[in-house]
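FORM 12-B: Structure-to-Sequence Request
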């Protein structure tokens, strides 16, 4: 049975993807800072599920996640989904808290690399995949999204370098597109997001297709994808 580690799994895209992977028969190791919500998700899922609340910025927690996955048989898929905004609501760079910016870089950029480093022996053994959740803010200059976007741009870049250094792995950096999530509501609380799709309506089916396709390493956009791109 394939094993996936999914961070930030207690809500939004992470929760929806965890549900979808469980429905497809994956064994799961799930992470989130919210213990109660994470435990509730784990209780509803069928199959082997290990829920480990904690902070991915903590090296000891990252080691715990990888150890749990090893106990389930290894790691076939590592999903770096956990993210923070750096400011809620988002603000112009002139007002960006440097403490908040540093937190965004730590959680969105440094911690995912730390988890990859911890998981590399198991990923190499399985010939597995790393799925890093990026954003269109990584490549587009949106007002107030500078700090968060910079953290995702750095994530994109080390993803591309890792793909060169670890050619036996698939390393994907994916912009999941617009979604109706609590994170977006916190980022732009005055925006009416009722017209945005829920994660399970758009992003998750596309991500499942990507995971199952064997697509080459690279940066992908759910909204701009084509069938050829998933299978190249």
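FORM 12-B RESPONSE
SEQUENCE OUT:
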């Amino acid at each position: 049975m394939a094993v996936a580690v999914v961070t930030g799994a207690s809500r939004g895209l992470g929760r929806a993807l965890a549900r979808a992977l469980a429905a497809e028969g994956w064994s799961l190791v799930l992470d989130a800072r919210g213990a109660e919500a994470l435990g509730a998700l784990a209780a509803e899922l069928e199959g082997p599920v290990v829920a480990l609340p904690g902070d991915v910025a903590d090296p000891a927690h990252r080691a715990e996640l990888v150890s749990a996955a090893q106990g389930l048989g290894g790691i076939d898929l590592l999903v770096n989904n956990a993210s923070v905004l750096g400011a809620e609501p988002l603000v112009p760079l002139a007002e960006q808290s440097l403490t908040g910016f540093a937190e965004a870089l730590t959680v969105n950029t440094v911690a995912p690399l730390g988890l990859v480093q911890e998981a590399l022996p198991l990923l190499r053994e399985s010939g597995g995949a790393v799925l890093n959740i990026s954003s269109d803010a990584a490549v587009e200059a949106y007002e107030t999204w500078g700090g968060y976007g910079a953290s995702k741009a750095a994530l994109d870049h080390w993803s591309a370098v890792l793909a060169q250094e670890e050619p036996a792995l698939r390393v994907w950096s994916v912009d999941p597109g617009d979604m109706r999530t609590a994170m977006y509501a916190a980022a732009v609380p005055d925006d009416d997001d009722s017209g945005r799709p829920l994660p399970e309506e758009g992003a998750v089916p596309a991500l499942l297709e990507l995971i199952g396709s064997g697509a080459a390493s690279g940066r992908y956009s759910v909204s701009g994808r084509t069938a050829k791109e998933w299978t190249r």
